């Protein structure tokens, strides 16, 4: 696969916080590219495919479209999650699918296929559990403010926490660790 047009505008292939110190000077596309590298640690091919989807959606949506909503569609169930506030089962399924990329499993503190377990928990509690379990393995679960009854987010390498914060701020994405959901 080829790199995005104007490769020099997107920086190197790893998001480095020092490279992002001037994130407010980068183009939206360059910031999106950096975010995609962060949510796809070590998987540039997936980042490139998602970047292509993002660019197509951005072209169709026009300049008024918020990047986070275009990203949501480009990364859903591959590098990110977006679930209804009461759909604990879909949250578990989505995050389970996301962590398979790194051959990880999450101990949810109960049987995720048990209806009693699902009835006695909610997405924020599950998000906090996933956050804690992933931190133990060097990953961070993030959630962004959807402004709705839904929860959205993604997972990055914990060593990229500062870079993720910088990119999110530059893209006007209100982002929190999964331990502190919206």
From TrEMBL:
The UniProt annotation puts the region (Disordered) at 1-20
Superkingdom to which the source organism belongs: Bacteria
Stretches assigned to the DUF6630 domain: 32-177
What InterPro entries does its record include?
Answer: DUF6630
Protein name as it appears in the record: DUF6630 domain-containing protein
């Amino acid at each position: 696969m080829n790199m995005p047009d104007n490769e020099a505008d997107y920086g190197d292939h790893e998001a480095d916080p020092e490279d992002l110190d001037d994130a407010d000077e980068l183009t939206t596309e360059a910031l999106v590219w950096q975010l995609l590298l962060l949510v796809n640690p070590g998987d540039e091919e997936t980042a490139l495919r998602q970047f292509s989807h993002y660019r197509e959606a951005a072209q169709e949506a026009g300049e008024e479209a918020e990047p986070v909503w275009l990203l949501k569609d480009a990364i859903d169930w591959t590098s990110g999650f977006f679930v209804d506030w009461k759909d604990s089962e879909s949250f578990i399924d989505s995050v389970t699918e996301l962590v398979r990329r790194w051959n990880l499993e999450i101990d949810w503190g109960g049987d995720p296929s048990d209806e009693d377990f699902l009835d006695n928990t909610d997405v924020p509690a599950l998000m906090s559990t996933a956050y804690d379990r992933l931190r133990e393995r060097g990953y961070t679960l993030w959630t962004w403010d959807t402004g709705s009854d839904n929860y959205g987010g993604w997972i990055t390498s914990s060593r990229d926490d500062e870079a993720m914060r910088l990119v999110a701020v530059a893209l006007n994405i209100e982002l929190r660790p999964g331990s502190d959901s919206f």
